[in-house]
Amino acid sequence: MNVPNDLKYTKDHEWVKIENDIAIIGITDFAQGELGDIVYVEVDTLDETLQKEEVFGTVEAVKTVSDLFMPISGEILEFNESLETNPEKVNEDPYNEGWMIKMKVSDLSELEHLLSAEDYKNSII
After folding, report:
1. What confidence score (pLDDT) does residue 75 get?
2. Within a domain: residue 42?
3. Residue 95 DSSP class
4. Is residue 118 part of a domain?
5. Number of continuous H segments (helices) and E segments (strands) in the chain
6. For residues 75 and 25, what is the distance between their CA atoms, to the nearest angstrom?
7. Which residues of the chain have pLDDT under 70?
8. Residue-level pLDDT at 67
């Protein structure tokens, strides 16, 4: 299982990569493995400001639909539109091509409450 050390994680299996005050967010390798073949990703909160733990979208797999939760508060700036035609990128490359949203972070101090790679690994064992 792939858990990059340079990312932050949530107990709900989202990952966060920070570039200045922009966060890139997706779901973890563990999450995509548990969901199975992903057939659709929906994010209808573009240009909205959401609070930490609010639902920003859903991911649909062959067997289930799962909510996507904001790991930190902020404004959703961009949706990875390539997922509209190629949702399988989330299965194939969850930490790069399979990213879901980019957002402007409202409060960088919220990052302190996210899990490190080591803590996330320990939470899924």
Report:
1. 98
2. yes
3. T
4. no
5. 4, 9
6. 12
7. none
8. 97
The Cα–Cα gap between 8 and 121 comes to 11
CA–centroid distance for 35 within its chain: 14
Q: How far is CA 40 from the centre of its chain?
A: 14
* Total Cβ atoms within 10 A of residue 89: 21
Q: In which region does residue 61 sit, left (phi positive, over 0), alpha (psi from -120 to 50) or beta (all else)?
A: beta
The answer to whether residue 27 is domain-embedded is yes
CATH code of the domain covering residue 86: 2.40.50.100
The whole-number pLDDT of residue 21 equals 86
Which ranges of the chain would DSSP assign to H, the alpha helix? 29-35, 82-85, 89-92, 117-124
Q: How far apart are CA 105 and CA 4, in angstroms?
A: 21
Instruction: Measure CA of the first residue to CA of the last residue in the chain; give whole Å.
Output: 11
Residue indicated by tokens 């989202």: 14
**CA–CA separation, 58 vs 54, rounded Å?**
12
Contact 62, 93 (CB under 8 A): no
- Tell me the residue range of the domain where 30 lies: 8-109
Q: What is the pTM of this model?
A: 0.95
Given this model, what pLDDT does residue 116 score?
A: 97
